[in-house]
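4.2 Preliminary Data

To establish feasibility before requesting continued support, the project team ran the inverse folding procedure on a target of 108 residues. The structure was first converted into the token representation described in Section 3, and no sequence information of any kind was made available to the design step. The complete token record follows.
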């Protein structure tokens, strides 16, 4: 199981928005992932941020799995969301996205 899958699983089990510390604690308690890092809490935070809708930075992914709730909590999206970016890493305007988003995908 990947870190991303473990994070989504503990959020599903809890059924509500969680802080990074809560996510990390629940992943460890459930034995869903073994971290081999000096600062595993930061690894969890980074994975959530990279896959969080509305956060755009150079290492963010285009596939978004989470949304921010109450400024310091996050929750998984019911539907995988694709955020489309131009080559400079900026969110492309909806008109430029055209049919690239594909049918059934949610584009923020």
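Position-by-position output of the design step:
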């Amino acid at each position: 199981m990947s870190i991303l899958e473990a994070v989504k699983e503990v959020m599903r089990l809890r059924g509500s928005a969680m802080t990074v510390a809560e996510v990390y604690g629940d992943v460890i308690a459930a034995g869903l992932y073994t971290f081999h890092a000096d600062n595993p809490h930061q690894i969890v935070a980074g994975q959530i941020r990279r896959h969080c809708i509305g956060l755009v930075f150079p290492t963010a992914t285009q596939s978004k799995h989470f949304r921010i709730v109450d400024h310091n909590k996050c929750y998984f999206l019911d539907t995988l969301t694709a955020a489309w970016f131009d080559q400079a890493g900026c969110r492309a305007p909806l008109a430029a996205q055209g049919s690239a988003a594909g049918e059934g995908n949610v584009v923020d």
